[in-house]
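step 3/5: co-fold with adenosine-5'-triphosphate
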Amino acid sequence: MSTLRLEVVTPEKKVFEQDVNMVVARGVEGELGIMPNHVPLVTPLKIAPVKAKVGNSETFIAVHGGFMEVRKDKVVILAEAAELGADIDLSRARLAKERAERRLAQKQSDINARRAELALHRALNRINAAGEKE
Ligand code: ATP
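step 4/5: write tokens
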């Protein structure tokens, strides 16, 4: 089966770099399944797990927004933060979720509410990606 190279990079580090058979990511306009020789594209990503398939196995990476660039045989994801499902600290994510929910319940300014909403999305993304780990 042919492969393409998936790289997930944050300002801190390279989170993932491997040859995979398929990448499934949530772009702002919907879910994208990328296989080798996909047409080139650049899209902003939602805060959502990215799935990398190699044979029958799947790796989940929590990707917190950013961009995906697809070239012939390469997918590069640049994100503010990203973690492999297996590296996620689930109790930290649960605490972040509770904190964000509390802040949202407190009806603060719009800016703080938006920040809490984004923090809640990140926490849920981590909880989802961690739950999918093998
Ligand atoms: P918290 O409130 O728990 O810090 P956050 O959403 O504010 O969460 P970020 O600013 O998105 O955290 O990330 C800061 C750094 O911490 C990044 O390097 C990110 O990968 C890492 N990180 C955040 N939460 C977790 C987690 N639950 N498990 C592993 N790494 C995490």
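step 5/5: annotate
Residues 12, 64, 81, 83, 87-89, 92-93, 96, 119, 122, 126 surround adenosine-5'-triphosphate (CB under 6 Å).
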